[in-house]
Write a structure and sequence with these properties.
Elements lengths: L27 E3 L1 H30 L8 H25 L1 E3 L16 E6 L4 E7 L10 E3 L3 H6 L7 E6 L2 E11 L7
Parallel strand pairs: 1-2, 4-5
Antiparallel strand pairs: 3-4, 3-7, 6-7
Amino acid sequence: MSKAFTKETDNDEDDDLGLPPLPAGGKNYITPAGYARLRAELLELMDSERPKVVEIVHWAASNGDRSENGDYLYGKKRLREIDRRIRFLTKRLEIAEIVDPVVHAGSDQVYFGAAVSYIDDQGVTRTISIMGIDEADSSQGQVSWISPVARALLKARVGDEVQLPTPSGVRVLEILDVSYPQPGGA
């Protein structure tokens, strides 16, 4: 049977690329810098990377038998990955709500975009930044605003103790410091 008219696996369920879904009725909060990074990635994919891959696929297709043509097969697969990422970024940017944490500079209360230092009930001190779902990078000490620790910390103030439910029981976190980016700074 010819594969010319068969649907390739291109499901919308794959569009999440491993990122957590937004809460039902929730907003896609994001910092201005995070929005700019996602937008730059989208433009790079659309204006540079996708046209290059299309050119390679076109060249590979002109070489004849496509069933054993590695350049063609890999190119088509890469093109599907790029298109999936473009759809994902487009959807997320359309619903993004940009929140600039600079407006809370000087506040001792935890809001979106805050860098929060806390000590837990076992004496371990940590500092995290509360970011958007699409921009949080755990290797940089960033957590998404929908994470359990961020939910526990939001709206609390320096000196407050909050309870964090975990699988091993409730942990108590004491907020030591809250900071925000300074206007015009990093």
